[in-house]
Structures are given as C-alpha cells and as structure tokens.
Design brief:
alpha+beta, Aspartate Aminotransferase, domain 1, 3 domains, 8-stranded mixed β-sheet
Length: 687
C-alpha cells in the first residue's frame, strides 16, 4: 500500500509513520500514558519493528515535523469467545512475533494524542485512517481494548461491573471509552487485568468497530463503493431544487432590501459551512470552488480560527489602534514582517479590505518618494474605492458611470500570451510588453514623477494571468534604477494559494510593499501592507489609520490562519491541489472545444471559454450557463476574466481529494451539457 497522508482542517497532518519517528513515538507514549507500567510500554525499538512487520498500520499525527499523535496496529485472528486474555497475551511482549499478515481483524495496540493537541480532531482522524485501512485490506473491522480511564478515580465508591454497565447504558461518561463510542465502537466485554495502569485500576473494555460502520472523515475506496449508497459516498447532498423554498423567500427579501448593484454569482442561500462544504437553508450541501473569492484558503470555519475568535471576543471586541495598543495587533504585524519576502527591515499597517490596503500602499509610496504618479496594468483588479477602482481595469463592469476617477495614473499592457496579437509568441509578447513599459517613461510620464508601480503577481479578476518572470524582473530593475516603489498586490494570490506562502516566492523577488487581505483573515475583514521600514515610516503621524483597522477579532483570526498556512504540510497540500487541478483541466481542454486556455499558478487555476478556438471569441453567456448548471448540481463556482468568460477554481485548500474530484466531475458534466447545446459541428471540430 502507498504511504498515507491526509491534511486536516486544523492544518495538522495524519501520515504513515517512518523509522525516524520512533524516538518521538516512545516519548509521546510516556507523555500520554505517564502511569502505564513500563513493562507494557512500547519503546523506540518496538515501533521500528512494528514498521517492519506492518508498515501500513503505523500512523502519526504531525504538526510540521513534530509528532503529536500516533496509533499502532497489527492484524490478528481474534477469538471473541476468549475474554481472559491480557494485553501481554495479545502483543506477546511487544508484538514482535504476534502479527498475523492474513489476520482478519485490525487490532489497535496503541493510540495517543499529546495533551496540548487534544480537542483538535486527531483521535477521530486516526480512527478514520484505521477504518480506511480496514476497508482497503478487506478486514472484518477494528478491535481493541479501551482503558476505563475514569474508573481509577471512582473505584472506592463503585464496582468495575457497575461502571461498565453505566457505560453501556450511557449513564457514565468515560474520558476514553465514551469518545470511542462516539466514533462508532461497540462495547463487547469487561476485561480485568488487561493493562497494568492505575488510572483504570487495570480494567479495560473490549470494543469493536465493524467494517460496515462509517467513520467521520473516513473515505471508502472506490472498490467498496457498491457497499454503500451513492448518496453516502457523495459530499453533495441535494434535497430540493436550487434555490429551494426557504432560499427563494430569503432571496426575495434580499431583492427588496439590497441594491441591485450588488451582484451575486449564485442563488445559494447559506445556513452554515465547514471545510469545503456549504449547507443552505433548505438542507442542500454544496462543494465550494470559490472559497469566498479566494478568502478561505484554510476553509470555512477552521477550528483554530473559530477558537481564537471566541476566546478574544470574551476579552476584547474593539478598541481602535488609533486609541490604544493591544497585543494581537502587534503580534500580527510581527508575524507579517517575519513571513513576507525580503531580508530588509519591515513594518506592517493593518486595515479592513484589500482596496483600503492598496490605497494605503500608494499613500506610503507617494509620501516616501514625494511623487504623484502610479503605473498599473491592463486586466488589473485592485478594488472598488476611488483610487483603487481608478487603478482597476475592466471598465464596463467596475467603472461605468462611476467617474471622474483619480488622476496621475498610467495604465500599460500586461503580457498575456493567450490574448497576444496574432503571430506573437509568448516570449515576443513579454518583449513587447517590456518595450511598452520602457517607452512609457518617455511617451507618458517621466520616471522622476512615478511614485509606484503596482502589479498583481497573478492577476485575479483579470483571468488568473501569472506575471511572466522576465517581465517581473524588469519591473524590479526599473524600480531600483529610478527610485520607484514596487508594490505587489497579493490580495487574491497570496497566502498559500499558489503552493508557496506568497506568489512572489516563485520569482525570487521581493517587492518594496506587499499588499495582503482575503485569506489573511480566514474570512474575517482584515488587510495589510507590509514593506520596507523606511517607506512605511514616511507618512506623517496621523497620515495612516482607521477606526476598525486591525480589529482584535480579525487579528487573532489572521494569526491563527497564518500559523496554519505557513506549515510545510499545508503548502505541500496546496501544491498538490494545483497539480490535480491542472491535470484535470488540461484533460478537459483535450475533450471540450469550448475551452480555449487553461492557466494559473499552483492551486489558483482557471479555464477560459471561447466560441471558437481559432478566433478566440469570448463565450461569456456559455460560461454563465455552466456556472448555473453546476450550482443546480451542487457546486458553487464563479466567473472571472476581462471578458467574463472564465471559470475560476479557488477551492479551500482543506478540500479532500474526493471532494475535489467530485466537484470537478460536476463542472465537467455541466460543461459538456452546455457545449452540446451551443457548439456547431464546425466549431466543435476545431482545436
């Protein structure tokens, strides 16, 4: 069997144990079971031997490289009529000889979670991984002996038999056994002198989890799909049409109370959400491929973020950074100064939205350089406030009827090889764009009047166009040459979306100021500009700030989110999602002539839809039809692109492989249905 690895919503990882984990596993058991008789304690040598005998059955919970949870299992032919055996009988002095490769039960010899990590779903995830092993090997189920860990404290006033009866009837709550019962284990018998530990007075309970039982978080292999109903295999659950009756009622209220200018991509009316799943008020469950427009890299309602907000709300909801200082504001700024690219001294300013952060970045650049001009690029989206929307491209959707706009702005072409002039190669397109940039310093503005060049490392609304490396390097060179502040807008492409914490890390370049928001706050309204300390200090006292910028609740949410996203395992998962997306979308392109281009960086991927691949005529109506059809089938998706003819893929990075494949399957089905209706035979034959 291949190595096991699963990223949990908390950012922790369940993975196959390796020999180098052995010493940590021995230490973990000493922490988890401090009163266990040493003769029955697994040592590092035992764990190494376990890996030789049955590598698939050895699993660890990891926080980065730290082992914080573990389970050890073997295979046995188990005799349920023999209830006199002890732990030592089963494992035979460390189970160095007792593993039966053809055994029909998975015996759980050990499971533990470090006290600092309890309540974060690790035990549940380990049991789920074990059940997946049961299914993969075709076993009868899991069997183990759970310690009556609450009995030692009450043995003076209740017998073991009465305690056991109370467990069976659910009158007694045991710290270990009641949790295992919630997982799905059934009590079979009381075991005396099974395990030598005073915390349970040497009593345990024989417990069984049958292979037929589902376990939360466990995904049955495809080979076992015929054992369960299709509805049980699917994350998508549709109980009504979309929108259902309750959703329609709330949508009608929205129509009466909210301006029509506030568009909506779907008719989903949300009740709650977790991970990559959204549940509407009619009881339907959707897979989310929008992720709050890229704001939910850590998923909906991740426990560490929720817990941080809850704890802070009991202490401080608002103060105002202009009024007083609080630790969470300072800590978030310190953290951003630490993780953003660049080895120079940095400072950070917090605000509420990406647009506000963009405006603050331009203000800082103008204060530092004493210059007015700003260069931006076609296809850019920088927000909707006055200066930000002035910098934003896509006039018809975002700017029509909204002028006059801010002055001193120069907009230049962004090299997009798919939309390059006919006959121009990708490299020629970059060369041409660099020429336009250099020429602008003569034709449009003198470099001595330019305060900043602002660019999205990967254009978001413009259609997920990564900046070509040569173009990015030339911007950096020109900024250095002319004393211009380079501003990287990573509101959408930052924080793990591209497989690195910041998209700029793919280029080996540091901007003078980097703008962040969206996934920074895990859905909370917080943004930041982090930049060179001398630039950030250039404004006069009182020149920056706002009432709610860096609100305590948003700060603690951002701190928790960053700590999740900066973990190597989280970034590796983001990279893996990107690989799966690109492989799937490239496959679609080979089968579906509506798709003109597949592009993006990491897990920030997109398909551009065209009526004809030869002419590249945009297909916005067909794109909208696919979005609507996908929603009817249980997937939330959203358009993008200058011509509104692209479907963006921004799933929460905690999405499971099964959810990702299921959601992609739905969108391809919608794509095929629309394609069959709209494409002429001639167009369908072109590629």
């Amino acid at each position: 069997m291949s190595a096991y690895r699963r990223l949990l919503p908390s950012g922790l990882v369940i993975a196959s144990a390796r020999p180098e984990h052995a010493d940590a596993l021995e230490q973990l058991q000493r922490v988890v079971f401090p009163t266990l008789d040493d003769a029955q304690r697994f040592k590092a040598a035992h764990y190494r031997k376990h890996l030789e005998l049955f590598a698939a059955g050895q699993l660890v919970g990891l926080d980065g490289d730290r082992v914080v949870a573990a389970t050890a299992t073997i295979r046995l032919h188990f005799d349920f009529d023999d209830r006199t055996h002890t732990f030592a009988d089963v494992i035979q002095g460390g189970w160095l000889t007792s593993h039966e490769p053809d055994g029909d039960w998975l015996y759980g010899a050990d499971i533990g979670v470090h006290p600092d990590y309890r309540g974060r779903g690790l035990a549940q995830a380990l049991y789920a991984a074990r059940q997946e092993l049961v299914w993969a090997l075709g076993l009868k189920g899991q069997v183990t002996a759970g310690m009556m860990s609450g009995f030692g404290a009450v043995k003076h006033r209740i017998s073991a038999e009465s305690y056991y009866e109370g467990l069976v009837s659910s009158r007694i709550n045991d710290p270990t056994l009641s949790m295992q019962q919630k997982v799905g284990f059934e009590f079979r018998a009381l075991l005396k002198d099974y395990l030598s530990d005073p915390i349970c007075d040497n009593y345990s309970v024989l417990i069984v989890l049958d292979a037929a039982r589902d376990v939360q978080g466990a995904v049955r292999p495809v080979a076992a799909a015929d054992q369960v109903k299709e509805s049980e295999m699917s994350s998508i659950q549709l109980k009504t049409e979309v929108p259902g009756p309750r959703s329609k009622a709330l949508l009608a209220r929205r129509g009466s109370a909210v301006p029509t200018g506030l568009g909506k991509a779907t008719d989903v009316v949300v009740d709650r959400a977790e991970g990559a799943l959204v549940h509407d008020v009619d009881g339907n469950t959707f897979i989310d491929f929008v992720g709050g427009i890229g704001a939910l890299a850590v998923g909906h309602c991740p426990p560490p973020v929720v817990q941080a907000i809850q704890a802070e709300a009991q202490k401080l909801i608002h103060m105002g950074s202009l009024v007083a200082t609080y630790e969470s504001y300072v800590r978030l700024c310190e953290l951003l100064n630490e993780v953003t690219p660049g080895t120079f001294a940095k400072k950070t300013l917090l605000s509420n939205s990406g647009a506000e952060a963009v405006e603050n970045a331009v203000k800082a650049a103008r204060a530092y350089t004493k210059r007015p001009g700003v260069i931006c690029f076609e296809g850019a989206y920088h927000g909707r406030t006055l200066l930000a929307v002035s910098l934003t491209s896509k006039y018809g959707l975002f700017k029509k009827g909204m002028g006059p706009f801010a002055g001193e702005i120069v907009r230049l072409p962004m090299p997009n090889s798919y939309r390059a002039p006919e006959g121009m190669t990708a490299e020629h397109c970059v060369t041409w764009a660099i020429h336009q940039l250099e020429h602008a310093f003569t034709a449009q503005v003198d470099p001595s009047e330019v305060a900043a060049i602002i660019i999205e490392t990967v254009q978001g609304e413009g259609g997920f166009v990564p900046v070509p490396p040569r173009f990015m390097r030339r911007i950096r060179e020109l900024c250095d040459q002319h004393g211009i502040v380079m501003i990287a807008d990573e509101v959408q492409c930052g924080f793990a979306r591209t497989g690195k914490l910041f998209a700029l890390e793919h280029y080996g370049i540091a901007a003078d100021i980097i703008v962040t928001a969206k996934s920074l706050g895990a859905g909370m309204p917080v943004s930041a500009i982090t930049g060179r300390a001398d630039i950030m200090d250039a404004t006069h006292v009182g020149g920056m700030g706002g009432t709610y910028g860096g609100n305590p609740l948003t700060c603690v949410a951002a701190i928790a989110a960053i700590e999740m996203m900066r973990q190597p395992a989280f970034l590796a998962r983001a990279e893996r999602i990107g690989v799966m997306l690109r492989e799937t979308l490239d496959g679609w392109k080979s089968r579906h002539p509506l798709i003109g281009d597949v592009r993006g960086l990491g897990s920030m991927m997109l398909i551009e839809l065209v009526k004809d691949r030869a002419t590249k005529q945009p297909a916005p109506d067909e794109t909208l039809a696919i979005i609507k059809a996908a929603c009817q089938k249980g997937v939330i998706a959203m358009r993008a692109g200058l011509f509104t003819n692209c479907i963006r893929f921004l799933p929460p990075l905690v999405i499971t492989d099964d959810q990702l494949h299921e959601g992609l399957g739905v969108i391809e089905q919608a794509l095929a249905e629309v394609e069959a209706r709209v494409l002429t035979p001639a167009a369908a034959g072109r590629s």
